[in-house]
């Protein structure tokens, strides 16, 4: 039996044990070190990490050995379901650790990666991508909301035939951006590096999104042109572009990982 409660509504001793106890599998996501103030100088309590962490639901399971509690992300991790939001160094490290953990648990069962991401740091995203290719279990990717920038590359990098998008999700691809200052020679080095990264990203897109009717080189040229500006796609257009394989609307039998395909 499983029930979900908010840690705000539970006694402090129970909430504390659920956070620090042996049943905890992963750490909570980073919501910032300090509260952020708005333009009027007032603090938004939702950005306070203490407040944000307290809003993460706690799942309590009844077992033969008594109650066992998990935060919602740890409980879903047991079902091999993980999530990606903004791409940064801390969340990238957490996600790669989860991928490696799930491989150690079972190197054959698929991992389901749900992506709702505006993108983020390129190197952090490439760390996730390389880990997805490195581990043995296939990674099935799902786009809900949006998969923009590095989020779209990770969506495309999922197991071929198992890259899904929910109907009203959107995808956006573009070239990397950055800035440099200092001596002219240093700026030239940074410019050379960002051009190298753009070429690498183009190669990755072409590797995973080449259509049956085109060659790898044709796909690369197609992405080189599309990456020049922000290129937005609906879920249907993402299929035509080769980033997504199928659109799903609901599970076929209510079980995790079983989808009812509509296209």
UniProtKB/TrEMBL annotation:
Keywords: Hydrolase, Protease, Serine protease
Protease is among the record's keywords: yes
CDD domains: S14_ClpP_2
Pfam families: CLP_protease
Active-site residue numbers: 149
GO molecular function, one term: serine-type endopeptidase activity
A single GO cellular-component term on record: endopeptidase Clp complex
Recorded catalytic activity of this chain's protein: Hydrolysis of proteins to small peptides in the presence of ATP and magnesium. alpha-casein is the usual test substrate. In the absence of ATP, only oligopeptides shorter than five residues are hydrolyzed (such as succinyl-Leu-Tyr-|-NHMec, and Leu-Tyr-Leu-|-Tyr-Trp, in which cleavage of the -Tyr-|-Leu- and -Tyr-|-Trp bonds also occurs)
Entries under SUPFAM superfamilies matching the protein: ClpP/crotonase
GO BP term, example: protein quality control for misfolded or incompletely synthesized proteins
UniProt KW Protease keyword: yes
Family of this protein: Belongs to the peptidase S14 family.
Protein name (record): ATP-dependent Clp protease proteolytic subunit
Naturally occurring in which organism (per UniProt): Kwoniella dendrophila CBS 6074
């Amino acid at each position: 039996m499983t029930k979900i409660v908010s840690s705000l509504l539970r006694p402090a001793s129970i909430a504390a044990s659920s956070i620090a106890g042996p049943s905890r599998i992963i750490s909570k996501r980073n919501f910032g070190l300090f509260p952020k103030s708005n333009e009027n100088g007032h603090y938004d309590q939702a950005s306070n990490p203490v407040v944000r962490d307290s809003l993460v639901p706690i799942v309590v399971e009844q077992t033969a050995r008594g109650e066992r509690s998990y935060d919602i992300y740890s409980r879903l991790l047991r079902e091999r379901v993980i999530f990606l939001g903004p791409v940064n160094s801390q969340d990238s490290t957490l996600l790669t650790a989860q991928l490696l953990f799930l491989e150690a648990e079972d190197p054959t069962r698929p991992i389901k990666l749900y992506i709702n991401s505006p993108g983020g740091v390129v190197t952090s995203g490439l760390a996730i991508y390389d880990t997805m290719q490195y581990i043995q279990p296939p990674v099935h990717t799902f786009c809900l909301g949006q998969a923009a920038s590095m989020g779209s590359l990770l969506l495309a990098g999922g197991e071929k035939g198992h890259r899904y998008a929910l109907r009203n999700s959107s995808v956006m691809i573009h070239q990397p951006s950055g800035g440099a200052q200092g001596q002219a020679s240093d700026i030239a080095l940074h410019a050379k590096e960002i051009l190298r990264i753009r070429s690498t990203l183009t190669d990755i897109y072409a590797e995973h999104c080449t259509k049956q009717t085109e060659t790898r080189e044709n796909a690369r040229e197609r992405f080189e042109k599309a990456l020049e500006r922000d290129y937005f796609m609906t879920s249907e257009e993402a299929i035509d572009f080769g980033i997504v394989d199928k659109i799903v609307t609901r599970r076929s039998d209510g079980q995790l990982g079983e989808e009812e395909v509509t296209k």
